[in-house]
Amino acid sequence: MKRITLADGTGGEKMMKLIKQYVLKNLNSNAKNIDVGLSDLDDSAVVNGIVFTTDSHTVKPLFFPGGDIGSLAVAGTVNDIAVMGVSPCALSSAFVIEEGFPVDDYEKILLSMKKTSKYAGVPIVTGDTKVVEKNVVEKIIINTSGIGMRSRTLDENIKEVKRYRRFDEKWIKDSNLRDGDKIIVSGSVGNHGIAVLSFREGYGYESEIKSDIKPLNKMIEKILKVGGVVSMKDPTRGGLANTLNEFAEKSKTGIMVDEEKIPIKEGVKSACEMLGIDPLEIGNEGKVVIGVVREKAEEVLKALRKTEEGKNAEIIGEATKNVNGVVMKTVVGGRRIVETPIGDPVPRIC
Amino acid sequence: MKRITLADGTGGEKMMKLIKQYVLKNLNSNAKNIDVGLSDLDDSAVVNGIVFTTDSHTVKPLFFPGGDIGSLAVAGTVNDIAVMGVSPCALSSAFVIEEGFPVDDYEKILLSMKKTSKYAGVPIVTGDTKVVEKNVVEKIIINTSGIGMRSRTLDENIKEVKRYRRFDEKWIKDSNLRDGDKIIVSGSVGNHGIAVLSFREGYGYESEIKSDIKPLNKMIEKILKVGGVVSMKDPTRGGLANTLNEFAEKSKTGIMVDEEKIPIKEGVKSACEMLGIDPLEIGNEGKVVIGVVREKAEEVLKALRKTEEGKNAEIIGEATKNVNGVVMKTVVGGRRIVETPIGDPVPRIC
User: Fold this and answer.
1) How confident is the model at residue B81 (pLDDT cuts 50, 70, 90)?
2) What is the pTM of this model?
3) Is B55 in contact with A132 (Cβ distance < 8 A)?
């Protein structure tokens, strides 16, 4: 009998295969009111002009340096909406709780959700609570779904794109990159995954490295006001490597990035070296990768760096027909292909 | 240390207490763009005019007579939106799957979701897939969230209400019942809970009793076209007893129902007698309880009975100031108070 394996659910190549083979085959719809649907495999869907997304959170442990399952659930869903270029307007939260779960921890999680929701300015408006017997779930699972609506900021951002090149899209999508667009990352990568992993396994890096969990909707609003943004994605499961490959594949363009420019903290670097993990494959929860028309790249970078969340932003590369897939110019002057992660080097971080 | 118990998650009085004490205290928002929010404790929220709801499904077993976790997840969320009086327009689905789950069962569930989604005419537009280690979840958990939008049918239904009495509400809510409104149930109660329980425990009633899982949006559309509907709720966890008490409490009115009129199948009756369960406390997945202005009750009933899902509909009682809470005229001529279930007589049915 064929069985689902851990690798099938990691955000990498194997998961894409599972989703294409089973989920899309059965559930995809081409209804006319769906602007962005299942088969776009983007961060959110767009139906009747409403941006709509969902995520179930199974992070282990529940509390870790820099965050917990509550802040993760709220920020993760806010960010999946915000990267579509729209304002998140409401969240749902559905809890599945194991019988015997400490009420104190439950309240700590709710407080953290409250705080994160206030910071983002996005209320939780509906919910569901199920309590199940021992061992039916490990402690607690939280699903957050969310909706967002188009604002004038997005229209103005697109108008600005059109000043520089042809652009027929209504939404910020992974597939919108074109030759010459610049790629920006809003800050250092790898922090979240390493913080959770190190804390869980007792490696000791967590004194130095904390999760970057943060709702990014306000930061994103600021860069959309500058204009020229065509694609955005938060590099969660599968990390920067996965995001760049999704951009390249869906946009049918190559991407060239410069290793020297990719911000990675020293602590993350040494943890990755010790553990034999590629920092580009590690999930983040407070970063965004941005595709922007060349002419606006410096201006967007400047706006990002003025924000707390984006102060370490860098232009790391560009879309180019000169390469196939994602290629990185290494620090020592060579070139290496950045592949879509097959599995997940750091499981259960979201 | 205080711990969460099974009874805290059952849809009854204890769950309401947990939600009020912890969820509402931390997460409730009074933002102006929220027409129906967390504190309304209704089936869905309404924010910026969009109806939004969520449910996580932990039913055991995954496959049972009349349905499975897939049809349940789709129909349940469609119904939570439809009972707000609006058209469901899209669903999300988020899977948490235990490593080793058979691919055949996974595909069977997806096929069932596809079939139910097609029947309802509501596409699944966005999703999430997480695979976790053995024993982190029992087999599979599915969250479905959904959105719906106001249609002219709802406006016309409300116009019809206003022909007969004062009505200042924009939405179909649990709190809209007034003295004299009639209560209709769309068919026999208790089938879903008894079918799942009996199959799970091997009681043998499932040959006779099948789950009533069904998306009700098309049936509801038909009765809204008749007009005069003020409140609707699908009596899932906590059953008819819970729904009637929620109506009464939120609407600040008494409700009087007639036992003789409540449709219950013989097989459900005998199972309930043997198991010592009140059929009014058992969850349903294809029924709706409707509050309608007196003058339109017969017409709504007639429209219901013309549909396959509503062919056994009955007017079971009315809202009345003459009683406190929910009171039932029994078959033998007495009166008994129908209380909000404290716990859940049949756990893990949704």
Assistant:
1) very high
2) 0.96
3) no
Show the tokens assigned to B336: 């008994």
Q: What ipTM was reported for this prediction?
A: 0.96
User: CA-to-CA distance for A290 and B318, rounded, in angstroms?
Assistant: 58
pLDDT in tens, B256-291: 999 999 999 999 999 999 999 999 999 999 999 999
- Distance in Å, alpha carbon of A311 to nearest chain B alpha carbon: 30
The answer as to whether A195 is a domain residue is yes
Q: Which residues fall within 8 angstroms of residue A140, CB to CB, at 6 or more apart?
A: A62, A69, A95, A96, A97, A98, A101, A105, A106, A109
Candidates B82, B91, B93; CA nearest to B44 is B82
What is the reported pLDDT for A14?
Answer: 86
Closest to A180 in 3D by CA, of A303, A301, A295: A295
Q: Is the peptide bond before B61 cis (omega within 30 degrees of 0)?
A: yes
Provide the pLDDT for residue B12.
77
Checking if the pLDDT of A10 tops 80, the result is no
Residues B17 and B124 placed together within one structural domain of the fold: yes
Maximum CA pair distance of chain A? 59
| Nearest residue of A to residue B17, measured between CA atoms | A129
Give the one of A55, A95, A133 whose C-beta lies nearest to B6's C-beta: A133
The beta strand positions in A187-334, using DSSP E, are: 229-233, 254-258, 289-292, 314-320, 326-329
State whether residue A5 sits within 8 Å of chain B by CB.
yes
Tokens of A191: 């922090």
* B96 close to A (CB below 8 A): yes
**Mean predicted confidence (pLDDT) in B4-26:** 88
Residue A140: DSSP 8-state: E
User: Are residues B128 and B220 both part of a single domain?
Assistant: no
Q: Do B88 and B166 reside in the same domain of the chain? A: no
Q: How far is CA A315 from the centre of its chain?
A: 18
Instruction: Tally A–B CB contacts below 8 A.
Output: 281
Query: Which residue, B148, B178, B201, sits at the end of a domain?
Result: B148
B254 and B122 co-located in one domain: no
The count of domains in chain A is: 2
Do B299 and B163 lie in one domain? The reply is: yes
Specify whether A31 is located in the same domain as A59. yes
Partner residue opposite A104 with nearest CB, options B1, B31, B33 = B1
Give Cα B317 distance to the centre of its chain.
19
Q: Which residue has the higher pLDDT, B53 or A342?
A: B53
Average pLDDT, rounded, for chain A: 96
- Which residues of chain B lie closer than 8 angstroms to A142, CB-CB? none
Q: What is the CA radius of gyration of chain B?
A: 19
A65, HSE (Cβ side, Cα atoms, 13 Å): 21
Q: Are A320 and A198 within one domain?
A: yes
Give the one of A8, A92, A135 whose C-beta lies nearest to B54's C-beta: A92
Q: Which domain, by its residues, includes B283?
A: 153-337
Angstroms from B143 CA to nearest CA on chain A: 7
Contact flag B133-A4 (C-beta cutoff 8 Å): no
With tokens 């058979």, the residue in question is B102
Q: Which CATH number do you get for residue B246? A: 3.90.650.10
Write the pLDDT tens digit of every residue in A177-190: 999 999 999 999 99
Which pLDDT does position B15 carry in this prediction?
87
**Cβ burial, residue A252 (10 Å; 0-12/13-18/19+):** exposed
Q: Do A94 and B54 touch (CB under 8 A)?
A: yes
DSSP state of B275: H
* Residues in A 103-122 with any Cβ partner in B closer than 8 A: 103-104, 106-107, 110-111, 113-114, 117
Chain A positions in Cβ-Cβ contact with residue B136 (cut-off 8 Å): 58, 60, 137-138
Q: B6 and A55: CB-CB below 8 Å?
A: no
- Domain C-terminal end among B105, B123, B148: B148
A contacts of B77 (beta carbons < 8 Å): none
